[in-house]
From TrEMBL:
This is LuxR C-terminal-related transcriptional regulator. PROSITE patterns: HTH_LUXR_1, HTH_LUXR_2. The keyword Transcription regulation applies. Residues 198-263 form the HTH luxR-type domain. One of its GO terms (molecular function) is DNA binding.
Length: 270
């Protein structure tokens, strides 16, 4: 593994595995396999990872479409090396913010109540560049309260018009405070780093604006959207300009990226 990939691997080891004193396997039941398959069908893969030694204890058959090898031969290193080199610096900053959120900011008894979301780009085994959405939640904790077993889903979202995004979102699974579009440039978590601190991006947008974003994300032009809504092209362009202003985005690709991580676009895992 190159030094760039080693750096990220060693960071995870220092921050997680060195804090977990003994190995405990995760009991993957048939019910869990069925549930996981429901959340990650189609163009995606999932795995359960043990943070004690970063071994993959369960991984979906679909990983072969990305890693180019059957699941029995896939290690974490193989998945890590799929990320394109230009993304590694961004991923490291995101992972620092993730670690800070889960190990310092969040109460230990709430670790299983949040999932994290961020996007990245990878090159699959065939050389194809893909935009991926990474979603993770803690399945169990060690005796000291550290994350021990983690469930991750990686979904191909290349069909969306999306650019690289430095944001990470932490979404409550229990209806409590979520933290959307957290800037990761500083490498640690602070609620004030949420780009839309006073009002989440979704709350800033009207229902019609959200509908337009969904169509823009799927590559529809202003003329095509206008026809669908029976509006003028000028009206749609005005909506798009207002949406960009509300989201502090300079173009559609940036807008879609922030909407994916910010809860505006609900990604169907298929």
């Amino acid at each position: 593994m190159s030094n760039d990939y080693n750096k990220l691997s060693e960071y995870w080891k220092t921050k997680y595995s060195d804090e977990i004193s003994k190995y405990r396997s995760y009991q993957v039941t048939e019910d869990f396999k069925q549930m996981a398959a429901m959340f990650a069908p189609g163009n995606s893969y999932y795995y359960v990872i043990n943070f004690h030694d970063f071994q993959l204890e369960h991984i979906s058959d679909s990983v072969i479409e990305f890693a180019g090898k059957p699941k029995e031969k896939v290690q974490l290193e193989d998945l890590l090396k799929l990320a394109i080199r230009e993304e590694l610096g961004r991923i490291e900053l995101k992972e620092k913010v993730v670690n800070d959120f889960f190990t310092r900011f969040l109460d230990r008894d709430k670790l299983r109540e949040y999932k994290l979301i961020y996007s990245y780009k990878m090159k699959d085994a065939s050389g194809k560049i893909r935009s991926m959405l990474h979603q993770t939640t803690v399945m169990s904790t060690a005796e000291n309260g550290m994350p021990e077993h983690v469930f991750s889903v990686h979904t191909d979202i290349s069909h969306l018009r999306i650019s690289s995004c430095n944001d990470v979102s932490f979404v409550s699974l229990k209806g409590e405070k979520s933290y959307f579009n957290v800037n990761t440039d500083n490498g640690y978590f602070d609620p004030s780093f949420c780009e839309y601190e006073n009002k989440d991006l979704l709350d800033r947008l009207s229902e019609r604006e959200v509908q337009i974003i969904k169509l823009l994300a799927n590559g529809k032009s202003a003329a095509e959207i206008a026809k669908e809504f029976n509006l003028s092209e000028h009206t749609i362009k005005t909506h798009r300009r207002n949406i960009l202003n509300k989201s502090n985005c300079s173009n559609t690709a940036e807008l879609v990226a922030k909407c994916v991580t910010g809860g505006v676009l609900s990604i169907s895992l298929n």
